[in-house]
Design brief:
Helices cover 52% and strands 14% of the residues. By secondary structure, it is α+β, with helices and mostly antiparallel strands. It folds into 2 domains: 73 residues, Arc Repressor Mutant, subunit A; 78 residues, Arc Repressor Mutant, subunit A (Orthogonal Bundle). Strand 1 and strand 2 form a beta hairpin. Helix 2 packs across helix 3 and helix 5 crosses helix 7.
């Protein structure tokens, strides 16, 4: 009978959490962190993630580990370095069309599918599929079809408030050239 695999050391667990945060591109919750760290304790996994955050945040200048509500952690580029990084990114997360459609959803949410197609053309349907795949947009049943709104993941990814009035002000501050008539 084979002996059980040895438990990972503290350093190995820290390295695993760091690697998962680096590679995920999205926030990871305590159960995910516990699994990757090789521990059954979610509490220990959160402590490991906080330790990784302290190390990364003190050593790195353009990258940070952020803790979100619900003990979720993400490694991300600091917002002020996005313009620099964008020039070197190999493949954007979203097409330009999907980004423009996302801007309309964010600004006019909840927005009906009919209104979205009127503003963005029938290509909006493909854009919505793309946005739903990455978890930035969800649909709700509306009296005549569907309506769309952004998710907390969208707000976290773009560093925006989840409060709609605040989000609109932030979007307006980014000069996105959104038509003002809803």
């Amino acid at each position: 009978m084979a002996s059980p695999a040895p438990s990972p050391t503290q350093e190995e667990m820290l390295a695993r959490v760091e690697a998962a945060l680096y590679a995920s591109g999205r926030p990871l919750d305590a159960p995910q962190l516990a699994k990757v760290a090789g521990t059954a304790s979610e509490r220990r996994a959160v402590a490991l993630a906080r330790e990784v955050a302290r190390a990364v945040n003190s050593a790195m200048k353009s990258v940070e580990v952020t803790e979100y509500p619900g003990s979720r952690f993400a490694m991300q580029l600091k917002a002020e370095f996005t313009p620099v990084a964008r020039r070197f990114a190999t493949r954007p997360l979203l097409s330009k069309g999907a980004l423009k459609t996302l801007t309309f959803v964010a600004y006019f949410q909840p927005i009906s599918s009919g209104d979205l197609v009127l503003r963005r053309s029938s290509a909006a349907y493909q854009h919505i599929r793309e946005l739903e795949e990455v978890g930035f947009v969800v649909s709700d049943k509306a009296p005549r079809g569907k309506s769309y709104r952004t998710t907390d993941r969208f707000a976290e990814y773009f560093g925006l408030s989840v409060d709609l009035p605040s989000m609109k002000r932030q979007l307006e501050g980014r000069n996105l050239s959104i038509p003002r008539n809803p």
